[in-house]
Specification:
heterodimer; A: 401 residues; alpha+beta; three-stranded antiparallel beta sheet; 17 helices; 14 strands; 14% strand; globular; B: 327 residues; alpha/beta; Elongation Factor Tu (Ef-tu), domain 3; Ubiquitin-like (UB roll); 3 domains; six-stranded antiparallel beta sheet; 7 helices; binds protoporphyrin IX containing FE; Oxidoreductase (chain B); iron (chain B); metal-binding (chain B); 2 iron, 2 sulfur cluster binding (chain B); 2Fe2S_fd_BS (chain B)
């Protein structure tokens, strides 16, 4: 519900973190976009933006819209964050510069190129194993979760055990960017245990001698970052790198399972795998939202957001803004999804995007080689999260060549 | 000085905010001009960090690299300071003698091979125009809450640019004009290795050798330096269209001066996935099979650019008439 007044900022009484809107955010996102460039959410007293242009400019403008006060609803200048802030996600220049530089090199397309044959192999073995079993299965557990959990912790260099802690940790972390609602309360009891486990993985001793983790620690030997920063940067990989990719792979699998013609197109031209993944990220926006905080009074399209206020950027709404995208709700492999904001934009743009693309690319390619058709065999169900758009389960049926 | 009229060559009509206009030119020391640059359309310039440089494509076609010495938080303006090198190969003379407010220049980068890494304290040493990358570092050191001191060497005070901007917060600044004070005992001034201190030096080769000598026993990475005479490209940038051929196909696309390679390919129905469209994120990395790329990205090191085996078509172009890429 939205009331617009020519003299004041548009207001909305919707609660985007309610179970109802998290279950299906699309109608709300349309109301948000249509209400204006900047809309005040009355429930929380924060500002929101859902139009592509506005979201994109806010993402680029780190000067006016800072991250160091937290990219969730909590204002770090007033309230203590529940865990030590991220050195990347929750930092502004110049503090952001060195950790970003180090991680960007370690995760660059050139550095991770050597992983491609390894992951392609892993993907083929996973698919081979899978199709030996029943051809009806849950695509979330058997593919979307299974593959990243198989390859990513190895690439970081995590020791073998308890890797399944990664998912609930990420799930809780991404919930905490929202208000302290039922989702945060559900996750809170396990949070200290999971946090302690994640922190314990980040020390130099517990990480393998090769991998992203070891590369981060090697940067301390060159003085590029300090030994105090290294464990927190490893933590960034474990926080931001698992659930995001799982749900992005879930998104691309769902898109194919519901668009058989697009699956056929992919099988005819496997090079479309890369585009398919970014198109699915545009469509589904596994990371739906992030906050910023204004560093001064900022006027956007006639609306002034006062200094020190939280702004909620709806990446998902921007990625379906009809002002920017033709037929925004279609999953369409003839579309060029370049410029979507599903990985963010600007200095905080996802530093792990090439890793995510490689994971998804190798998996989708392996599937396309063996699987002739993929379709839903029952209604999929959502997993609610304050930040992520996720599937809890997705029953599918496949046929083989 | 009378404003010369040169019509900007077509190469300067760069796409995606890659042409800049000179908005201010001021003599700030003997033989040093400060130049302020903005985007023609007034839009946001690519972000940079202290120590970064840009490629400046001058209206006479030559390309020169200059350290940025403004404020990284100012998204609308770049500032560089240029020493007139009479014996140089003409880039700085062109800037001093001919470049005027209102002229257009092309932009490559920014790139940073001289990044400021975290440290409890910093020892900055600059010689002459080598002060330019150091100045933004002083502000960053302040913002990081680190201690710092600066030694600024020059021939004499009149040649030392930016002196009045060096009193930044808590740092200790030593100006050392050789004409008044003679040689400085550099090793003594730097002191002995200390895990909490990193040394940053920028200046002429001779100074950097002295710094290297004085810090032989230091841990690598704790002493970082940049020569201010970096790579230069002398042959004029091509002002004419070139062709991009897709390897293994007979698809050839013409790229005019006003469009990016990615946009030209898109127009021909070949989509290369791009993301930042600024040569920063690396999403559009494309293999170059033959031809000579004209690199404008912020990603590759000098050596990687020189290898010429890949480029980023959202910003980079071609020096040769034809470039063959694999997509
Ligand atoms: C498809 C999967 C993924 C999605 C949708 C995604 C999304 C995002 C988004 C939207 C941001 C920007 C946050 C902001 O602007 O405040 C971001 C930042 C980040 N991502 Fe990802 N991400 C994914 C995978 C990964 C992976 C695999 C890694 C690690 C290997 C990773 C590590 C990070 C880090 C460390 C940041 C913070 C960067 C900074 O602030 O400079 N992400 N991600």
């Amino acid at each position: 519900m939205t009331i617009t007044d020519a003299h004041t900022v548009a207001q909305s009484s919707d609660d985007p973190f309610s179970a109802e809107i998290l279950q299906d955010p699309l109608p709300f996102q349309e109301r948000l976009r249509e209400a204006g460039s900047v809309v005040r959410l009355q429930t929380y007293g924060v500002y929101a933006m859902g139009r592509y242009d506005t979201v994109r400019s806010a993402l680029l403008d780190w000067q006016d819209f800072q991250s160091a006060a937290g990219v969730g609803m909590t204002d770090f200048t007033r309230e203590k964050p529940w865990r030590p802030p991220s050195l990347l996600l929750e930092a502004d220049p110049p503090h952001h510069d060195a950790p970003r530089e180090v991680l960007a090199k370690i995760l660059s397309p050139r550095s991770i190129r050597e992983l491609e044959p390894v992951w392609a192999d892993d993907a083929e073995r996973l698919v081979d194993q899978l199709i030996e079993g029943p051809l009806e299965f849950d695509a979330v557990t058997h593919l979307a979760e299974a593959f990243p959990l198989r390859v990513f912790p190895d690439a970081v260099g995590l020791p073998g055990s308890d890797r399944d802690h990664l998912l609930p940790y990420g799930d809780h972390l991404f919930n905490t960017f929202g208000p302290e609602n039922f989702l945060v309360q559900q996750g809170a009891p396990r949070a200290p245990e999971l946090s302690a486990w994640v922190n314990a993985q980040c020390s130099r001793e517990s990480l393998a001698a090769t991998g992203f983790g070891a590369d981060i620690w090697a940067a301390t030997d060159r003085g590029d970052i300090t030994p105090a920063q290294a464990p927190l940067i490893v933590r960034s990989l474990l926080s931001a790198g698992v659930d995001t990719t799982v749900h992005a792979i879930g998104a691309v699998l769902h898109a194919f399972a519901t668009h058989p013609d697009q699956w056929r197109a992919l099988r005819e031209d496997p090079r479309l795998a890369r585009r398919a993944f970014d198109e699915a990220i545009r469509l589904e926006s596994p990371v739906q939202t992030f906050f910023r905080t204004t560093t001064r009074d900022v006027t956007l399209h006639g609306t002034t957001i006062p200094e020190g206020h939280k702004i909620l950027m709806f990446l998902g709404a921007a990625n379906r803004d009809p002002r920017r995208w033709e037929r925004p709700d279609a999953f369409d492999l003839t579309r060029d999804p370049s410029g979507h904001v599903g990985f963010g934009m600007g200095i905080h743009q996802c530093v792990g995007q090439h890793v995510a693309r490689l994971e998804a690319g190798t998996l989708v390619t392996a599937l396309a080689r063996r699987v002739k058709t993929i379709e839903l065999s029952g209604p999929p169900s959502r997993r609610l999260n304050n930040t992520l758009r996720a599937w809890e389960s997705m029953p599918v049926r496949i046929t083989l060549e | 000085m009378e404003s010369p009229t040169h019509s900007a060559p077509a190469a300067l009509e760069r796409p995606d905010g890659r042409s800049l206009v000179v908005v201010e030119k001021t003599l700030i020391a003997a033989s040093v001009v400060s130049i302020r640059l903005r985007r023609i359309d007034g839009g946001r310039l690519p972000d940079w960090t202290p120590g970064a440089h840009i490629d400046l494509i001058l209206p006479n076609g030559v390309t020169r690299q200059y350290s940025l010495c403004g404020d990284p938080a100012d998204s609308g303006e770049y500032r560089i300071a240029v020493l007139r090198e009479a014996a140089g190969r003409g880039g700085s003379r062109f800037i001093h003698d001919l470049l005027a407010v209102g002229d257009r220049v092309g932009l490559g980068g920014p790139r940073n091979n001289f990044t400021l890494v975290p440290s409890t304290s910093y020892t900055f040493i600059s010689g002459g125009i080598g002060i330019t990358p150091i100045l933004p570092m002083l502000h960053a050191a302040e913002a990081l809450g680190s201690r710092w001191r600066l030694l600024y060497l020059g021939r004499d005070l009149s040649t030392m640019a930016l002196v009045e901007e060096l009193t930044v917060g808590s740092g200790d600044v030593t100006l050392h004009p050789a004409s008044e004070r003679g040689r400085i005992p550099l090793a003594e001034w730097i002191g002995s290795y200390d895990e909490a201190t990193k040394v940053y030096a920028c200046g002429p080769a001779r100074l950097l050798e002295s710094v290297a000598d004085a810090t032989r026993t230091w841990r690598p990475g704790w002493v970082r330096s940049e020569r201010f005479t970096a790579r230069t490209i002398d042959e004029p940038l091509r002002a004419t269209p070139f062709e991009v051929q897709v390897f293994g196909t007979d698809i050839t696309v013409g790229v005019g001066p006003g469009t990016s390679v990615a946009a030209a390919l898109r127009g021909a129905g070949i989509d290369i996935l791009t993301s930042c469209a600024r040569g920063v994120c690396g999403t559009c990395e494309t293999t170059v099979v033959s031809g000579e790329p004209d690199h404008r990205d912020s990603i590759l090191s000098d050596a990687e650019q020189a290898a010429g085996d890949c480029f980023f078509p959202c910003v980079s172009r071609s020096r040769s008439d034809r470039i063959v890429i694999a997509v």
